[in-house]
Amino acid sequence: MNVIETSGLGKSYGSTWALRDCTLAIPEGHMVALVGPNGAGKTTLLNLAVGLNAPTAGSITVLGKCAAGSPAALDGIAFVAQDMPLYKTLSAADMLHLTRNLNRRFDRGYAEARLGELGIPLKRKAGTMSGGQQAQLALTLALARRPRLLVLDEPMATLDPLARHDFMATVMAAMVDDGVSVLLSSHVLTELERVADYLVLVSRGRVQVAGEVDDLLAHHRMLTGPTAEANLYTEQLNVVHARQGEAQAHLLIRTNGAADPVPPGWEAQPVGLEELTLAYLREPGAAALPGPARRADTKIVGVAK
Amino acid sequence: MTLDKGSSRESADSLESTSGRSKIEFRLDSASGLPTYLQLVQQVEHALRLGYLRVGDQLPTVRDVVASLAINPNTVLKAYRELESKGLAAGRPGQGTFIEGVLGRVEFPELTQFRRSLLEWMAKADRAGLDEDGIAALFASSLWDFRNRGHAVADTEGAA
Amino acid sequence: MTTLAAPAHQQQATSLPPVPWRRMVWVAWRQHRLLLAGVAVTFGAVALYLFAMGLQIHDAYATVAACRPATSSACRQVGDNFFGTYQPSVSITEGILQLLPALIGAFAGAPILAREFESGTFRFAWTQGFGRTRWVIGKLAPLAIILAGASVLIGLLFSWYYQPLISAGDTNGALFPTVFDLSGVALAGWTLAAFAIGALAGTLIRRVVPAMFATLAVWSGLAILTGTYLRAHYLPPLITTSLNEPHPAWVLSQLWTFSGKPASLDKINQALAPIDARADSFQIFSPGPKTPANVDPFKYLTQHGYTLLTTYQPDSRFWTFQWIEGSWLLGLSLALLAATVWLVRRRNT
């Protein structure tokens, strides 16, 4: 089952397209990192997935073939928006009761136990809690609904490192305990490297990269060699991004299979997720999307000077 | 601490409290440059070598690792699958993952030969003026080279 | 043992029963407890005041009504005393209560939705399993019903409270704008309309304070329009040529005509010149020093071919007008609330 499936999805506000030509098929059971610069379209995509917005173009289905925003979708998806919206004047116990009242499925025992473990008193008003506590409360409410998919919009922006660690530990444990799939957006990639096993990179309203992290890393290499020879290989190699000094050049290439031959005299190194992402962000024309390799995928990007 | 019934009760308590926990704890080294799952594999192998883990011991559950390190459960699963393929561990459905094998041992005669050549090399280094710390440092950096450059080793040592 | 499997307790959404409505009622109550308390206190205080003062006024009026003979100057004096004692406080109460529906609309209707948008909590509420359509209905309907019900009671109470003044000869009558909109069912209509305007403003503007101001502005505009123009034409007004003011009635306008055509003030003054009287306005004539003692300037004009046309709505039409006004206000409120629900359902944040 694909937790999210889109086809040519687009959303425009007036004449500006916040998201365009978005085609994804995200399988379940993954922790999906949705990354990209601010304003790239991440929140737009999330809003479309949870039914807060309707598409201007294309289509989106969630949790198999449910329409985004339909009762079945609302039931199976728990969303924590940016800034953790909570009713500030209500206590944690009231928020639990309220969430229970608005959903068909709510595990009150789990929620109370979890808040107890975290040391969040049930009588404390949500507005008087620290940022980390609010985040944990919002997450607890979401997980207590026993969703199939948990969607988080930049949840860690306001959290200190310890709070971030605790937050992600809770999310990961929920993946193990309940088989929840997770879609998390962030503009900071470093904190996601340890946790993400599926990556969607959005830049300027378009999806540039989508795929399992292991696959992506396995199909990219960093070639290091003499600058003078760099131009010779741009025909055979699918160069995503190039960085050149006077003598030495680094070419980030995308390979088709396990081992494309390395040009003689050149070194091949594996690439890390952050380096990969930055390279694609610097090359708006490049893309690494799943599906049969189209000519556009193997487009040779000119070596930048 | 007095040596009487009180202490034996205390030791019984501490036994009780450790019986439900795993023998080892994983840690992450963000400076190591290795993928996370390989770090976990290495830590298990290291623990085996040093005797923290023995055959039959249970590795930490996926849930516990994930809850303490905040890493993706698929990473832990990948590490445990790698250990399985190396024959070091095996999963028992409904129970967990357990140590099943030991690290491959080098046979005794070869071990003696390696030992002798190592001692000869150390004697040579000592005569050349290298002290213990220098020998240890040289060994560590060569090991790093070996690991990263693979088998492209200069053969000058063999000749000598 | 080496793969993550979805646990068996995940049930299909369709096999679970839908969340019952009473759950949402709890949510709305818990979220807006303070608001409901404020409304209850306000209405309660107004009701208590009207009841207490009403009892006093009714008691005092009993003495006026019992006075015999009714047309003697002594009884007229009793009547004047009655008015002198109670008219001021009644006028002040009338004035203050004009604000009641508008404030309800601004403080209850506007924030109920605007705050959700302003604080971003709609992103939480609209992604819960309950769904946003039922959520918005569950928020608006109970409160609307409570407000309508409470204001019907207050309206009827006000009619009862004001009645003695009309019986004692108040020239305003029950149809007078500031009295009418607080009486009977009209008050409920105006309160409900204010609430509906507030809800729609909150959904359109999405900020609490601007929505409150917008609500006050729109409601006031509508109320003024109705009071000065609309209400006067619910039924065609009656016209009389009698010199006695119709009573009790709501006089809309008075006009002097000559030979069927409206007469200007100048023309009237010309006609009045022989008796040295002056017309300050159509209704107010001042006798001069040379005016004969037993000549009434009004009668003098009518004897010289002028006719006084008084346009008015009689008090007997009170309940007819109440139902008319109540109905269209109810219709408007329902339309505005429906528009609010429609806006919420529309998927564009």
What can you tell me about this protein's structure?
The complex is a heterotrimer of chains A (305), B (160) and C (349). With 305 residues, chain A is α/β, with parallel strands linked by helices. Chain A has two domains: 2-213, Rossmann fold, CATH 3.40.50.300; 219-282. Chain A is built from nine helices and 14 strands. Chain A has helices at 42-50, 71-76, 92-101, 108-118, 131-144, 161-178, 213-218, 227-230, 273-282, and strands at residues 2-13, 16-27, 31-35, 57-62, 66-67, 77-80, 149-153, 181-186, 198-203, 206-212, 220-226, 238-244, 248-254, 267-270. In chain A, helix 4 packs antiparallel against helix 5 (131-144) and helix 5 (131-144) packs parallel to helix 6. The model of chain A is unreliable at 292-305 (pLDDT under 50). Chain B folds into two domains: 5-99, Orthogonal Bundle (Arc Repressor Mutant, subunit A); 108-159, no CATH class. Chain B contains seven helices and two strands, in the order ααααββααα. Chain B has helices at residues 5-19, 36-50, 62-69, 73-85, 108-127, 132-149, 156-159, and strands at residues 89-92, 96-99. In chain B, strand 1 and strand 2 (96-99) form a beta hairpin. Mean pLDDT of chain B is 77; it is low at 1-19 and 153-160. By secondary structure, chain C is of the alpha+beta class. In chain C, the strands form two sheets. Chain C has a four-stranded antiparallel β-sheet with strand order 1-6-2-3, covered by helices on one side. Chain C has a two-stranded antiparallel ribbon with strand order 4-5. In chain C, strand 2 (249-258) and strand 3 (261-262) form a beta hairpin. Mean pLDDT of chain C is 86; it is low at 1-11. The interface between A and C is large, with 42 and 36 residues.
